[in-house]
Amino acid sequence: MRIELQRRPAASGLFSLVSPLLALVLTLIFGAIMFRLLGKDPGHALYSFFVEPLLEVWSLHELAIKAGPLILIAVGLSVCYRSNNWNIGAEGQFTIGAITGSILPILVPQWHSVLVLPLMLVMGAAGGALFAAIPALLKTRFNTNEILVSLMLVYIAQLFLDWLVRGPWRDPKGFNFPQSISFAPEAVLPPLLDSGRAHASILFALLAAVLVWFMMRFMLKGFEVTVLGRSERAGRFAGFSARRMVWFSMMLSGAFAGLAGISEVSGSIGHLQPSISPGYGFTAIIVAFLGRLNPLGAIASGFVLALTYLGGEAAQLSIGVSDKVTRVFQGLLLFFVLSCDTLILYRVRIIFGSGRAREAKS
Description:
Blueprint: E1 2-7, H1 13-37, H2 42-50, H3 57-82, H4 90-101, H5 103-107, H6 116-142, H7 146-166, H8 201-218, H9 220-230, H10 232-237, H11 242-269, H12 280-290, H13 295-318, H14 324-345, E2 346-351, E3 357-359
Antiparallel strand pairs: 1-2, 2-3
C-alpha cells in the first residue's frame, strides 16, 4: 500500500475555505498531545494559552500591541508572495526601520516639534524599503535567490543594531547598559486609550490591510500582481514587467516592515536596545499564509498569532512551561497550514498492492 497525491482538475473551493480552520484544529490537537507529554493538563494548558489572555483589559491592549506589527508586516508579505517573490527577511527590514526611524530622537534629541514623530515614521518605512531593495537589486541584476539574500540580511541588521546600542548610540548616562537614550515625549506614539498601552501601530496595520485589499481587488496594480504571480509569461503578454514587480513587491513589504519596526520602538519600548522583536518578521510569514495571502485575512490571523505570544507568557506563569512552547505552537500552525493547503490542489489516493486504488476522503 502506498499513498499518492493526485492533482485535482480544479482547485477545491471547499478546502480553500476550511483549510485554515482545519490547520487550527490540528494545531490544538497536537498541542494538547504535546502538553500531555510534558506532564501538563491539556485542558488547563490550552485555557492558559487561548482564553486567559482575553480576560483582562490590560491583556487586550497587549494583544493589540503584538497584533499590530504582525498584521502590518503580513500585509506587505502577502503582496510579495502573491507576486511570486519570496521575501523572508522582514525581520531585518523591521530592525533597519527601527534604526533609521530612531535617528532623529537619538541624534537630535533637542529638537522638540510635532514634526518629529511623522518624520520618524516616514524614515522608518523608507529604511525598511531600502533594505528590502538590496535583494531586489541582486535578483534583477544577478539573478540571485531572494530567499537566501533577504534571510542573510536579517543577521546583518541585528548585528548592526547590537553594535549601535553598545557603541556610538549607547546612552552615556545609562550605567553602561546596551541601550540608546530614551525618546522625548514628542517622539513617542501616545496610547490610544487611558486603560492600557495600545498605540497607533494597530491602526496603521488595519489601514494598510484595507488599502492593500482595495489595491488588490480593484486596481490595475493588484491585477498585475496576480497575473505575474501566476504566470510570468502571461504577464509579459499583458505588458507587465516582472523586473519592476520584484522592486515593487519587495520594497512595499520592506516599507511596511520598517514602519512596524519604528512603531514598535516608539510606541512600546521608547528607546533602542539589542532585542526589539520576539520574531515578528518570521511569525508574520505564518500570519500571511494563515490569512490566505489576503490582506483582510491577515487581520484575523494576526490576532490569532498575537494570542500565541500572550498565551505563551501566561502559560509560563500559570503552568510553568518554557517560552519555547510558543515557538512550537507557531511552527505547528505553519506546518499544518501548508499541509492542509495541499488538499486544495491535490486529492489523496491510497494505492493497494494489487493495483486497486481508493481515493481517501479529502
